[in-house]
Amino acid sequence: MEGLSERQYAARVGLSRGAIQKAKAAGRLVLHADGSIDAAASDARRAETTDPSKTRKPPQPKRKPVPEAAVSAVGDTLKEQGLAAPATGGGTTFLQAKTANEVLKAQERRIRLQKLKGELIDRARALALVFRLARQERDVWVNWPARVAALMAADLGVEPAAMQKALEKHVRSQLDDLAEIQPDLR
């Protein structure tokens, strides 16, 4: 069998020519009488004499870690559409992620279209409107006893100040109960 040159052997094993020269000088390579390298025997000897901690590992493909929230969102989107979601901690396949991405893009387009058609409203604007209307209604109720107390007192034959005080007490109680209600605009 014909031996290999330093360059040929270096290319075969994925090392530099300088590393092959060092291995040759250290006696970790098997040489033929003509000085060429016996590849099979040299591979075996290098495996026996090389410290595993000093060997180069083939580079691992660089993968960006995917946040668990993103994987969870993919699973939720797939479940909403009735598709198989990835197992927890099992990772997501490219096809599942691609499907979820397409579903999300379709949902986003549908929402954009609904907004353009005027079918959707701005949440902050709706909350501000509800708050403003509730404040106006509260103000009307706060002023109501002063407006009607004299009329009711005349109809019932009681003192107007006492009637106004009683009405204000009951209106305040009712408004306190209404103040605990929180709008839930989901």
Could you describe the 3D structure shown?
This protein is mainly α. The protein has helices at residues 6-13, 17-25, 39-49, 68-80, 94-117, 123-156, 160-179. Helix 1 packs across helix 2, helix 4 (68-80) packs across helix 5 (94-117) and helix 6 runs antiparallel to helix 7. The longest helix is centred in the C-terminal third of the chain and has 34 residues, at 123-156. It is rod-shaped, with a radius of gyration of 41 Å.
- Globally, the shape reads rod-shaped
Cα gyration radius (Å): 41 Å
Helix content: 55-70%
Largest sheet: none
Cα end-to-end separation = 79 Å
SSE succession = HHHHHHH
Strand percent estimate: under 5%
The overall average pLDDT, rounded, is 84
Give the helix tally: 7
- Unreliable spans are none
Overall SS class? mainly alpha
Tally of extended strands? 0
Structure summary:
This protein has 7 helices and no strands. The protein has about 190 residues and is mainly α.
Blueprint of the fold:
Blueprint: H1 6-13, H2 17-25, H3 39-49, H4 68-80, H5 94-117, H6 123-156, H7 160-179
Helix pairs in contact: 1-2, 4-5, 6-7
Comma- or semicolon-separated keywords:
mainly alpha; 186 residues
